[in-house]
Amino acid sequence: MFVPRQRAPEGLKMNKYTFEDLVGDEKVFFAEDFNKKPMLRKESMPGDVRDILSIRKLDELLHLEVVRPPYIKVNHNGSGVPEKGYTRSVVVQGVNITDTVVPEKIYELFRAGATVTWCSLNQIVPELRDFTRVISDKMAVRTDVVGFMTPTGKRGYLPHHDPVDLFIVQLEGTKRWKLWNPPAERLGDNASYTDEQLGDPVIEVLLEPGDVLYLPYNTPHAAAAEDQVSLHLSIMMRPRMWKDLLRETFEQVADAPEFNEYPHIGTLRNSTVESLFRQKVTSLAARMDALDAGSELDRLAELGRHMPGSSRGSTFQTIAETDGLTPDALLRRTGASVEFGANDGGRTEMTVNGHRIAVPAQVAERLASLDEGEPIPAGEVFPGVPAERSTKAAQGLTRLGVLEMAGAR
């Protein structure tokens, strides 16, 4: 029988997990496994993986009474349980919430053998958002994390494949997995199978806490808990096909002013419209051909790293810290979009994130001269005035998001 690892003493910090913890040698992973075949890594994750998420933590989340469908779903005998079977209406601050989860009903279904699925946990649990950001940064795709809690001896879902790449991380209990190689033609769809259709699996393994599986998209798989309640994470990476990347590049290129004209293409169109259309296609193709492939892929990768589900920030903390700003506190320009107008009688109009403000011309000139990330003391933001007055100006600009503490990010 599997013996759980001893939990670390309370008060110790959660491990900082890395992409290498999941895949091992990155070069080997991308050369031999990524988008090709399923991969197993035993005892891959260091420390106590219950620090990532635990059954105890899910009890706490359930009783907060704020987790609602579709963030939580229940599956029994291969079919979804209707939400009305485990929700009720409650009044919160005068507003009627019609689908509040009832913990007792969830527990009742779980005792009866249902799997409880926690969807998009990276939108609920900050630690999981940090954990999955590690993957988004490497893979440059949208990443979501789903938790599956399965009762002892139960199979949550029939054999199937999903239109996403998956990292499976076992957190508590054990679960037996069967994996088959993805089909030769992968359509990026969902599909279910019978055991007879699939034949012998290429991987059959009992996952224990800390073990990791990688499944390329459309990899058929099936899993069942054995002699303990099982909790595992499925970290879903949504593939960006060539058609998706090309569409994003096309939209960027087609945003050029020459494509903003409004032609009439109906039955009464002018005979010149067809030749103009051909000219536009030729121009578009020329613009696409002139792209620097490396730079464009870098741009697309950066877009992938900042898709919904992985953002972070500390604006509340930054604003609070400005109240105690001192003249020698180091600040720096943020990445906020700033447009500078002309000097009008010693005042310069600035547009910051769509908001217009007028600042002393010296302040605007100082900001314009700063590179993003370059540090500057708060007492020097407004040249030629006492440090205390400069610091007041710096406080205002920090609250607007133009400046931030140099130790932020």
From TrEMBL:
Matching InterPro entries:
JmjC_dom, NO66-like
The name this protein carries in UniProt is: JmjC domain-containing protein
- Write one Pfam family the protein is assigned to: JmjC_2
The record's section on SUPFAM superfamilies has: Clavaminate synthase-like (SSF51197)
The protein's superkingdom reads: Bacteria
Q: Which residues cross the membrane?
A: none
Q: Name one GO molecular function term.
A: metal ion binding
Keyword terms, alphabetized: Iron, Metal-binding
Cofactors per UniProt?
A: Fe(2+)
Among its keywords, does the record have Cell division? no
Taxonomy, top ranks, is: Bacteria, Bacillati, Actinomycetota, Actinomycetes, Kitasatosporales
Q: Which residues form the JmjC domain?
A: 101-254
